[in-house]
Design brief:
Helices cover 9% and strands 55% of the residues. It has a 14-stranded antiparallel barrel with strand order 2-3-4-5-6-8-9-12-13-14-15-16-17-19. β5 and β6 form a beta hairpin.
Length: 440
């Protein structure tokens, strides 16, 4: 039986949204993107991802690109459950609120592109982390777990409740590895089309625990798991894997010597992951009676589609050495199996950027991206919170020889805070990257 729900969806994205793009989609597949995220109408080797139809207009021959990115992100949640955290007997909060920190550290996120152009044909291959690529650690747990333990004791003990304690932590790792193969053909000197397939192998691993739970009564008596089986440690240890494949089509039109237009459509990747769990007995007993946790029982299946994506881009060349780019991305989130209109609407992105050739060897570029999420509080939790954001990137390209070019870039995302009745969420994110292009 397939499972879905708020906590299920949250854990599915805990390690899958560290990068630029939609809820599950990484669009930062190239250092060129970090330099300038408006790549939807680009003509280059990274067009294998951003504009596959346009890649056929790139130089003839064999081209190879390797990209390396380092990502750091902080996810903070300031929670207040009606002052409940004041009652934590080992770590009381004076004002009843507490800050929970999640850290994402991805030392290496690689991507590879290979392109062969000959005459009217282009043959393309690419590998990268289409989603995920790292993990997020909440070393002190999350507010919803602490509130669950504290409120349970308050309800059970009533006027005899004087406090609670627990130790909690949770870590999620998610890797959506994608391999794409495509071909493009010029129909005329100005018009080309492309068709490709991308296969995605998803692997996710979730570890978490709520341990050392205890309650303090008004008379000073402390109840722990030696007196109450209901306070048994909860241990989550679940690995999930799945595979999906989807077609990608594109069109590129060189409307004039100074104007290039392109569209791309990535179909929805239908993807279901199956759980291989080694949870402890207490967690499995909880999961068997609570649908929010049921997806982490051994053998359970969970929907986690990659949404369909439409992109449109235009590249202008007002003068010979300057290229100006604009773009629009639309993620069809509502059309996936795991989400619905009660929780969110589709995501929209708008991009703008420019690239300038200082000399034949040196070029610089910079760009902006605005990502707008349409979601309700039902789609937000302590484990997964995606907020509308504004990103900027800049970088340089250096041609060290006729056949080798080196790229370097910095990319920063600034998020809007998101507030629910219990919690205020905030995030910071930065990416640095280097890459090399090689022609043969």
């Amino acid at each position: 039986m397939r499972k879905k729900g708020l906590l299920t969806a949250a854990l599915l994205t805990i390690g899958a949204s560290a990068f630029a793009g939609g809820y599950l989609t990484n669009t930062n597949q190239s250092i060129y993107f970090l330099r300038n995220p408006a790549r939807a109408a680009s003509i280059g080797i990274d067009g294998i991802y951003y504009n596959p139809a346009g890649a056929v207009f790139y130089n003839e021959g064999f081209h190879f690109q390797f990209n390396w990115q380092n990502v750091k992100q902080h996810r903070d949640a300031i929670a207040n459950y009606n002052g409940l955290f004041k009652y934590n007997i080992e770590n009381p909060s004076l004002d009843g609120s507490r800050k929970f920190k999640g850290n994402v550290d991805v030392p290496i996120q690689p991507s590879l592109f290979a392109l062969y152009n000959k005459g009217n044909w282009s043959f393309q291959a690419g590998f990268g982390f289409m989603g995920g690529g790292g993990g997020c650690e909440f070393n002190d747990g999350v507010g919803m777990f602490e509130a669950m333990v504290g409120s349970k004791g308050m309800t059970a003990l009533g006027d005899n409740f004087a406090g609670y304690a627990l130790n909690s932590e949770v870590t999620g790792k998610s890797y959506y590895m994608g391999l794409s193969l495509a071909a493009a053909r010029k129909l005329t000197d100005n018009l080309s089309v492309s068709f490709g397939l991308r296969g995605i192998y998803a692997t996710q691993h979730y570890n978490g625990s709520i341990k050392d739970m205890k309650y303090k009564m008004a008379a000073g008596i402390v109840i722990d798991q030696t007196q109450s089986p209901a306070l048994s440690d909860l241990v989550l240890d679940c690995k999930q894997t799945g595979f999906g494949i989807a077609p990608i089509i594109g069109i590129d039109y060189k409307a004039a010597d100074w104007l290039n237009l392109a569209v791309k459509y990535e179909f929805n990747t239908r993807l279901t992951v199956k759980s291989d769990a080694k949870n402890n007995t207490a967690f499995d007993q909880l999961a068997s009676t609570n649908t929010a946790f049921a997806g982490y029982l051994d053998g359970a299946k969970t929907d986690c589609d990659m949404p369909a994506l439409f992109t449109f881009g235009a590249q202008f060349a007002p003068i010979e050495k300057l290229r100006v780019d604009v773009g629009y991305h639309h993620y069809f989130d509502v059309a996936t199996t795991q989400w619905n209109k009660d929780r969110l609407g589709d995501t929209n992105e708008f991009t703008f950027g420019a690239e300038y050739d200082i000399t034949d060897r040196f070029e610089v570029s910079a760009g902006l991206q605005r990502t707008i999420y349409d979601q309700t509080d039902a789609n937000v939790s302590d484990l997964s919170f995606n907020m509308t954001s504004f990103s900027y990137g800049f970088g340089i390209g250096v041609r060290v020889s006729e056949k080798v070019k080196v790229n370097a870039a910095y990319f920063q995302t600034l998020y809007d805070d998101y507030k629910t009745p219990t919690t205020t969420y905030s995030r910071t994110n930065r990416v640095i990257g280097i890459g090399v292009d090689i022609a043969f």
